[in-house]
Design a protein that fits this description.
Elements (H helix, E strand, L loop, with lengths): L1 H8 L7 E7 L8 H10 L4 E7 L6 H7 L5
Parallel strand pairs: 1-2
């Protein structure tokens, strides 16, 4: 969270960030509210994808939510 907040707080840094957070249940998501607030405050620079269920990040999940590198 600290790295994300630092990058987004720097107005000269135009880096776009994506976070995929996998957890077994919604209550296990640490900093859930803060991450969602940042994604709403910086919609062009930060996207967060919260997944519940298996708690695993798969290749299919990555393909679904992330753009290929340019």
């Amino acid at each position: 969270l600290s790295v994300i907040m630092t990058a987004l707080g720097n107005t000269h840094d135009k880096t776009k960030l994506s976070l995929i957070y996998a957890s077994s249940s919604e209550r296990d998501i640490i900093f859930r509210d803060e991450l969602l607030q940042l994604s709403h405050k910086f919609p062009d620079r930060f996207t967060v994808h919260l997944t519940n269920g298996s708690g695993r990040i798969t290749r299919a999940l990555l393909r679904e939510h992330l753009k290929p590198p340019s």
